[in-house]
């Protein structure tokens, strides 16, 4: 579905000046229009769609433009800057690595790469023994599927090749990751779909009230899929589009089912990892251990890096040189990741995510209770929240209302990215994990005002 786009039309805004926010111009800023027009002229339409703010500086949890405006950031880019925007420690680490004289080494050994893979194994759930470093989340999920299918053929023959995923799931924008994903509109361009990718209902309890694990097995049976033919089941530890978590009992049953059927449980933590939900890895909420973990986004501290982790028997299934990547283990991105992980640990950012998340969700519940006809649900854990806006009195996603809320938040000095999820009715909030309570409350207040004004103007 094509969502609304923000117009290149400056609007008068109320002047705002607080400790954290400053809005002193029309939004979008008139002086920014030539730059914004160039982007729309020279980039594909798909690259537009975000609020029309020219990011010029980002520090901690504050984003500034070149025109004197600043925003409290509730986006973290897109769940990337978990340890904050360019903390001093990260800046020093990157400068030091650049000054060392080496920023690329392909698959030739380098010291930051060796330190990072060791660190990831040390902090990962049990059973994770080896790490394959990549660049994007889609690379990570595609390689996880590749490993699962290869392992399935090894232990069960050519017919053990089915990958089960969930309706509504998003695993990336490449062909393989979209085949694995559960959003039909994203696959239309492919044409003939690979029948070895099978989707089952996501048990969110809102759009789908059926949360018992029997729905998983019943769906496979209806689709003619035998458990013995399943090579892997890939889950997002929370479903990104709505920040929806599985029932704990469901996930435990899924882990047991995978074990019984010789299928690998693949945990896509690209959005969810590194403290976002109040746990270092969001799969920890369920008390289960996956076979393969995909990492990305918040792993890199702002630079592009991802990874696949797993047991040696899966990770070593390909021989020397058979599974590599051009920028695997890039020393600059590895340095960024090492510094970011160190900050998450030393500054207690997982605990801060949990503590600030309790405040965030408590306040969002108050907003939902005030507007029950237009807010169907508030999902998430830690510093991850999704507000699902609906048509009055029903669950139908309300994209226009969600869009208006985001637009008004930008005008009020709160940085959010555009609505997403089913029907474009979801507004997600995920500030850097370093955010302070005073700034968090100020951002929530701005959001509440935007919701009130958007509903009243309907």
Automatic annotation (TrEMBL):
Needed cofactors: pyridoxal 5'-phosphate
GO molecular function: identical protein binding; pyridoxal phosphate binding; transaminase activity
PROSITE patterns, A to Z: AA_TRANSFER_CLASS_3 (PS00600)
The keyword Transferase is assigned to this record: yes
Alphabetized UniProt keyword annotations: Aminotransferase, Pyridoxal phosphate, Transferase
Domain of life: Bacteria
Pfam families: Aminotran_3 (PF00202)
Gene3D superfamilies listed in its UniProt record: Aspartate Aminotransferase, domain 1 (3.90.1150.10), Type I PLP-dependent aspartate aminotransferase-like (Major domain) (3.40.640.10)
SUPFAM superfamilies attached to this UniProt entry: PLP-dependent transferases
Leader peptide range in chain numbering: none
Family: Belongs to the class-III pyridoxal-phosphate-dependent aminotransferase family.
Name of the molecule in the record: Aspartate aminotransferase family protein
Organism: Candidatus Zymogenus saltonus
